[in-house]
Amino acid sequence: MSAMSPSQQESESDQRGLRRFLSTNILYTAPWWLIILIMIGIAIVILIRSDEIYSGIFEQLREGVGMTLGVSLIAYLSALVIGLIIGLIRSTTPSPPKPGTGIGGALTAIVRTILYNVASLYVNILRGLPILVTLLIVAFVLVPMIRNFLEGTFSVDIDLRGTSPESAIIALAFTYGAFLSETFRAGIQSISRGQIEAARSLGMNYYQTVIHVVLPQALRRILPPLGNDMIAMIKDSSLVAILGVRDITQIAKTSSGRSFRYLETYLVVAVIYLTMTVLGTLIVRYIERRVKIDH
Length: 295
What we know:
Helix content is 81%, strand content 0%. With 295 residues, it is mainly alpha-helical.
């Protein structure tokens, strides 16, 4: 058998190295989607810094980033509170509520019946309406009605207009509150009845059982959908541009209308939104890993 030449040995070594690389897990486990996005982002950042047109567009849109994040964060936190309250009402109240015994039991059953049906009506209406329609109803119907009522009845002039960011926050909070309430309800009802009965047998009352036993476990289970809804809120906040709120989308709309540079403007807009949502996704995944329970 003849000895291989140095060039053949080098070729054989390269082939063995390629086979080792193909057989390693990194080829299949590496987040290639994230690597591609980072490369695209770096290319566009370089383009923004080197091109006067793109840099000018980015400087105009920077004002809207704070508005977008502010509206999204406040609306989402408000939606969490609304969703938790409605979720508790709909998950801890039987459907239909059972009649109680005695005057106290009857009154309690009536109150629970009213709360359950009001909560169910709210959830079904808000989940059935497009977010844009809800924004328009809140901005041009409900807010003017409330303002006129307060001014005419109590002579109170509130600084709230239909096209203000506060109106957009109210609409988004109540819309997402309806969706989050179903997430909370599913998480609460996923806790086994035995754990609740065990907590009650240890002397915990209803509120202690919910706070110390039910909610901590439910929150761990519903964290992924809650994180997804936060990402969706950032994207859906672009709808507030219809009210004239100066978020990223509204500034891009007016800027591109003046300059007719639609391609450049909306490319930068897409990169900004994509950056916020990808970063949000990574943060949510990190939190999920930190709170994950190892079985």
